[in-house]
Write a structure and sequence with these properties.
alpha+beta, 2 strands
Length: about 80
């Protein structure tokens, strides 16, 4: 990120070693690093089904994606 004007993050997935989701921790680390480097613009690309958009997807889809969507909601 050094020398960048802005950061776009689309982080998602899990750590292959631990199986832990990286959505919240990874995005949070990205935002923190941007701040340390003086980058004032961060665009976080999230997902339909996070936060207030939970009702925009079918309940069955939400149930399948629930762990990921909850992690993404922490950052959204």
């Amino acid at each position: 990120m050094f020398g960048c004007d802005a950061v776009i993050t689309t982080l998602s997935g899990s750590d292959p070693a631990t199986g832990k989701l990286v959505d919240y921790v990874g995005s949070n680390n990205c935002i923190e690093a941007a701040g340390i480097l003086g980058i004032t613009r961060v665009l976080l690309v999230s997902s339909v089904g996070c936060g207030d958009s939970k009702d925009a997807i079918k309940e069955s889809v939400y149930q399948q994606l629930e762990p990921v969507l909850k992690e993404k909601t922490k950052v959204s």
